[in-house]
Amino acid sequence: MVAHDELCALRALVRAEAVLARRAELVRLLDDGGAGALPRVAVVGGVGAGKSTLVNSLVGRPTVSPVGSVCPVEFGHARVDGARAVLAGAADRVVALGEVERYALGTVVEPVVGVRVRVGAPLLRSVVLVDTPGIGCVDAVRFDAVVFVRDADRAWSRGDSALLAAVVARTPACVVAVTKCDLVPHRAQVVLETAERVEAVLRGVPVHPVTAPFADRAGELADSPFAARLHELSGLGALARALVARAPVGAALVRAAARARAVGWAARELAGRRGVVDPARVEVFRSRVEDVRALYQSEAVRGPAAALPTLAPRAMAELVAAGVAVLTHLESVVGPSAAVGPFTGTGFAASVAVHGAGAGWWAHRGRRNRSGLTAWVDRAARAAESAVHRELATRLAAGPPSTTSPRAAELVALAARADRLAEAFTGGA
């Protein structure tokens, strides 16, 4: 509460200065609280952990989000079921629910950034769920809360710990789901071990054992007296209640951090201390793109044949993450983005730029033509670098003119306080 009160006081001071300076665009930025949007919850986990199956069961549509998707699939509420494919460089395309699989798996010729699905599930009145690809991209987008999915039939690994640590470092609210509990005879032991591992990363995170097939069966027996009991035994009811309780807390913190970043940037703008693009950040981006190019070209030439079908989408995910990092840095120059979710803000801009630049990657998904993949990786990496640089230039050119206030020193001090608050709200995410 103290931090929120301090943020309100800082915002009032900076807003008054913006009014005096007749900077209407800064006043609008400071007045935008980001209220009204439902909390956005990402479902993340390792490959094959059961993310898509869990999401489908939570929304009561067992077959919509496919296993092995190469792009995020977002589920929101609507009275009438429907879906839209989000394409790079083109208008969204209306698709039937039965077509979601083709677009999410990347088996169409268009460069698909993601798929938006709308269904009438009760849970979606409270949250928006995003099924994330199992090929990386955890650090590409901000979310209000996360469901970390762990497969009960696999031993906890260092990779699980690293992924969970990366998740909680960026997201203020987390729930853990232990899936496939119907496949193990020692369910209680697995849940206890998971709770201990999670506690080592972050205290206070609830761990829920779930059995998605029970919920699916309950849906089939909707009029049966056993349906409610079967759904409760699935664990999805408890998991959904935890999400509804914890996601708004995470959303409040994410939005508070966004407001603090806006206050800090506006104060620096008024002080005439606009940031500049750090050449070192741009060089890190360039170096990361080169690393991706070298890594995946090497894998295309000498890697195991079994991994070749997913090489292209994995490379795209790495390039998107690199683009997000440098475009996020640009927010200190042209203004912060309060956007949350996979189809808005910096993450979406980077995804569109990279997917557009990597046109043709879908033709290599599933192919084992090593020479074709090698050539594609080179083209995609170079084109993605150029596309993100164009996005940087466009955003810099669109930035408002900088002005200088006679109270510059005081405004710089206010900006530093706002920056500290932003880190405090979400741990620097």
Overview of the molecule:
The chain is an alpha/beta fold. It has a domain at 40-253: Rossmann fold (3-Layer(aba) Sandwich), CATH 3.40.50. It is built from 14 helices and nine strands. It has helices spanning 2-20, 24-31, 51-58, 100-104, 158-170, 187-201, 212-220, 227-233, 236-270, 279-302, 311-334, 345-357, 370-398, 408-426, and strands at residues 40-45, 73-77, 82-87, 93-95, 112-119, 128-131, 145-151, 174-179, 207-209. A nine-stranded mixed β-sheet has the order 4-3-5-2-6-1-7-8-9, sandwiched between helices. β8, α6 and β9 (207-209) form a beta-alpha-beta unit. α1 (2-20) runs antiparallel to α14 (408-426) and α12 packs across α13. The longest helix is centred in the middle third of the chain and has 35 residues, at 236-270.
Low-pLDDT stretches are none
Mean pLDDT: 82
Oligomer: single chain
What is the overall shape?
globular
Task: Profile the largest sheet.
Answer: 9 strands, mixed
Q: Which structural category fits the helices and strands?
A: alpha/beta
Give, in order, the helices and strands.
HHEHEEEHEEEHEHEHHHHHHHH
